[in-house]
Amino acid sequence: MATAKVVASRKEILITGFGGQGIVLAGQIVGKAASLGDHKESTLTQSYGPEARGGACSAQVIISDDPIHYPYVRSPDVLVCMSQGGFDKYAPMLREDSILLTDQDLVKTSSVPSSDCFAIPSTRMAEELGRKMMANIVMVGFLTAISRALTLDAAREAVLDSVPKGTEKLNTTAFGKGYDYGVAVLKGRQKKAEGRKGAQG
């Protein structure tokens, strides 16, 4: 028998960067994972700056248990920045309880209200795999681990379903590296917090 949902879960995710980084593809993967894999409602809107490659670019994804009536992110629960320009433009939208994810080599974060700021060298990790263009997939793995907006299986399946034929294995590796990095970061934070508690006790 189906049980009633007590609280409608809703996540607003904003992914930003510049043209050529696969920002919109990352948004498509997140939306596809939520709708097809996790059976939730999801919407995707995208915008480009005046230049396609190198210009500002963003993808806005809303995930909800209930129908979505307005497809634009008003206040992101998760902000992903893969360029300094994206950070500078969208950081003012962060709330104190928002999660900020950045490419640590491309984005320098000034003071932001978010205490939950997580950085990953996604472009460097992709370069080490031999394909700089997979930085977006590394970031999707990181997002999956940190935000918990998607299940691991749904996200991995959406990656496989969205990348060019013949690159599935490499992209799965990229996704896994990002996910594992996120899990390690969370574990490290947990240990630190437990250490602080122990020191106070």
What's the β-strand tally? Answer: 6
CA-to-CA gap between the ends?
46 Å
Spans of at least 5 consecutive residues whose pLDDT stays below 50 are 1-8
Globally, the shape reads globular
Summed up, the helix count is: 6
Roughly what is the average pLDDT, rounded to an integer? Answer: 89
Taking Cα atoms only, what radius of gyration do you get, to the nearest Å? 17 Å
CATH H-level name... which superfamily?
Answer: Pyruvate-ferredoxin oxidoreductase, PFOR, domain III
- Order of strands, main sheet, comes to 2-3-1-4-5-6
CATH-defined fold name: Pyruvate-ferredoxin Oxidoreductase, domain 3
Helicity level, as a percent range?
40-55%
What summary fits the major beta sheet?
A: 6 strands, mixed
Q: Order of helices and strands, N to C?
A: EHEEEHEEHHHH
Q: What's the architecture, going by CATH?
A: 3-Layer(aba) Sandwich
Percent strand equals 15-25%
CATH class value: Alpha Beta
For the record, the count of structural domains works out to 1
Question: SS-based structural class?
Answer: alpha/beta
Secondary structure layout:
Blueprint (H helix, E strand, L loop, with lengths): L9 E9 L4 H15 L3 E8 L7 E9 L13 E4 L2 H7 L8 E5 L12 E5 L1 H7 L6 H13 L4 H11 L5 H33 L1
Parallel strand pairs: 1-4, 4-5, 5-6
Antiparallel strand pairs: 1-3, 2-3
